[in-house]
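Progress narrative, Year 2. Work on Ring-cleaving dioxygenase from Lentibacillus salinarum advanced from sequence curation to structure prediction during this period.
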Amino acid sequence: MELKGIHHVSAITASAANNVHFYTDVLGMRLVKKTINQDDPSVYHLFYADEIGNPGTDLTFFEIPRAGTTYPGISSISRTSLRVPNDGALKYWNNRLTEYGVDHDGMTEQGGRQVIHFRDPENQRLTLISDETNAGVKGGNVWEHSSVPADKGIIGLGPIKLTVQDPAPTINVLTRILTFRETGSYPSPIQEQDDIRVFATGEGGTGAEVHLEVRSDLPKERPGRGSVHHVAFRVDNENELAKWKDRIQAERIPNSGLVDRFYFKSFYFREPNGILFELATDGPGFATDEDVDHLGESLALPPFFENQRDAIEANLKPLDTTRPY
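Result:
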């Protein structure tokens, strides 16, 4: 068994409407699913991705209207990367972020790749990363109705960064249990801190990396709006997922057991530094209950919530995601 790369990253927003505006109108991602948090049906769960929500392209948000400020720290998923096709596309983004007044640091180099670090309106810590030299997991396809040109748009999730105080237990889980391998490192931007170490799985490349940062100068993160809830890694199918669950159980790591999210099957566990990991199947996908041309326009509910639709819709603040085309 071998994990195939990053499946999705799920974060927190305090405003679904503002979130939709930024990720669709400014970043040009497609809203492929407007649904509910299955663990709390009173709030939205929004999925942004490529043209059809291919695995490895999904950045998702739980709406928690009263979410407070995030205080960054250790035991966290401290940065999410979004892939663009090449260095030329990154130059386009450097101009676009400035044009839209997005807080960003300009183009810089990180581990041999060109990147732009930036923040969304809720201080979500994000990076655009160029696939110019990528030889690993392929990216997705930009939606034809994106607000960004197809040859410049976001094509998937890039490396995610974990920030911990003690790296050894996390490395043990990544390499001994989850089939990641250490492939390199690059200098930390923070003085007197260790290099950031790079771990890859499957075919490797930008879509299959975890970057591990050690910080001895930070308290534990206090999550809020703009923080990341969990990262999910790709598993091929349900049979393999069951074997992964058995492996985690054999290690005596507490876990959720198998969970049916309808659009994929998964299970969850925390690695020793407290960061929440999910393993999720590649299918069946987001077109299971909606026409591909109209993904994300209506409130989609898995069949096991359909009998509660009236009550659920009554508790949700209306969110218009219909499109003019």
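The CA atoms of residues 3 and 178 lie 7 Å apart. The chain has one domain: 6-315.
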